[in-house]
Amino acid sequence: MATQRIVSLLATAVAALSLASLVASPWNARAEEARVAAREACPQLLDREFNRLQTGKPESLCQYRGKVLLVVNTASYCGYTHQYEGLEALYRKYKDRGLVVLGFPSNDFGEQEPGSNKEIAEFCRLTYGVRFPMFEKSSVKSLTANPLFADLVAKTGQGPKWNFHKYVIDRNGNPAGTFASRVEPSDRDLLALLEKLLADKPADSKG
Questions:
Q1: In a domain, 207, yes or no
Q2: Tens of pLDDT along 14-25?
């Protein structure tokens, strides 16, 4: 009797697991399809992850698809560090229209970003009230350390020669312009390009 009861319980458990598997399979399949669709919709240039400066947690740049991006390599002790103020002003002015400023601290030029990620985050927040997304310190000159910058250099033919070099990326994930470090965030040509790109819609939403 005991053996039969055990066999019966095992059979019931197996049946329950099988049923759960059947119920979960369609959901898992749909979830996987959604992940694949999201990945396919992500422009190649943005299909990568970086750790956020403040949290250290990885975030995909795919979350910014359909946005106009201003990508900048930054430093805390540079003659251009004051541009943080202008970049934050740009972000606050245009973010509701689809602009995102992305900051990438780098110590590639003259030891002007020697601090830890925590120190950089505190400096940006306390000194300039930075709210735009920033990512952990990396080398923007190394082709392996920061693949986003490696791709931007390859696609535009222009690499950062100093801190606060600026790349503009359109809503479809394509480089649309580059601006040297000396170009202020309030520069007329930069603003004109941002205005033009913000007025556009992503390719898949036209028609």
A1: no
A2: 555 455 554 455
Residues 196 and 131 in one domain: yes
The answer on 48 and 22 residing in a single domain is no
Domain residue limits at 150? 44-202
Angle (CA) 109 133 70, round 5°: 65
Looking at residue 132, the DSSP 8-state letter turns out to be: S
- Active-site position among 42, 62, 78, 124: 78
Instruction: Please enumerate, as own/partner, the contacts of 199-204 that have beta carbons within 8 Å and a separation of 24 or more.
Output: 200/170, 200/171, 201/171, 202/65, 202/66, 202/171, 202/172, 203/171, 203/172, 204/41
What domain count does the chain have? 2
Whether residues 102 and 196 fall in one domain: yes
How far is the C-alpha of 194 from the C-alpha of 16, rounded, in Å? Answer: 57
The answer to whether residues 37 and 62 touch, using CB atoms and an 8 Å cutoff, is: no
Prediction pTM value: 0.80
User: Is-contact 70 167, C-beta < 8 A?
Assistant: yes
Question: What's the pLDDT tens digit per position in 98-115?
Answer: 999 999 999 999 999 999
Handedness of CA 84, 85, 89, 90 (dihedral sign): negative
**Element housing 23 (H / E):** helix 2-41
Q: Within this chain, do residues 37 and 66 fall inside the same structural domain, yes or no?
A: no
- Is 78 designated active site? yes
